[in-house]
Amino acid sequence: MIERPFSDISYEQYLDEEQLMSSRCKRCGTFFLPPRPICMKCHGNEMEWVKMGGKGKLITFSCIAVGPTFMMQNGYDRKHPYCVGVVELEEGARVVAQFVGIDTSKPETIRIGLPLTVTYLHKGVGQNLRTFVAFKPL
Questions:
Q1: Fewer CB within 10 A of the end CB, N or C, for the chain?
Q2: Which residues of 69-98 are buried (b: 16+ CB within 10 A; e: fewer)?
C-alpha cells in the first residue's frame, strides 16, 4: 500500500473509497479527524493513518432550516431542514458531519448520546462528484 500524505486531498480520496481515515500521533496516540500532519497535543510530526471503525455517539447537533446555497440546491429548506453536529468515535476522535435517517423536523426527539454509524453521501456527477461523511442511527 502506498502511504498517502496527510492532506485534505488524501482524506477526500479515502472518503471516495468509503474509508473514514484519521491521523494518529505515534508519540502520544492522539487521533485527528480530519487528519493533520502535526500533533496539536504534543507537537510531534510522526503521524500514521488509521482506519476508524465508524461507530460513535452524538455529542452535539444543530438542525438548520436556512443553509448555504449548496445545501439549498440539495433540497434542504425551512420545510426540510438538515442536521449537523459532532460525533465522538469509539476510538476517541471527534468528527463534524451531517446526520441522516433522523427526523430533523422534530429536533426535540434527537438525543445526545445517540449511537451512530458512518455512512457516505455521494453528491454531484462526473468531475463534480464529491463524497461526504455522514452518520445515521445504529
A1: N
A2: eebeeeebeeeebbbbbebbbebebebebb
CA distances from 90 to 14, 82, 103, 120, 135 (A): 19, 24, 24, 18, 14
The DSSP secondary-structure symbol of 77 reads: B
The single residue listed with the C-alpha cell 505515534 is 26
Residue 22 structural domain: 1-51
Residue 81 shares a structural domain with residue 92? yes
Between CA 82 and CA 62 the distance in angstroms is 8
> Same structural domain for residues 28 and 38?
yes
Whether residue 64 is found in the same domain as residue 100 = yes
The structure's pTM equals 0.87
Distance separating alpha carbons of residues 96 and 59, to the nearest angstrom: 10
CA distances from 134 to 18, 87, 112 (A): 11, 10, 16
pLDDT-derived band at 62 (thresholds 50, 70, 90) equals: very high
Residue 12 main-chain phi, psi, to 5 deg = -65, -35
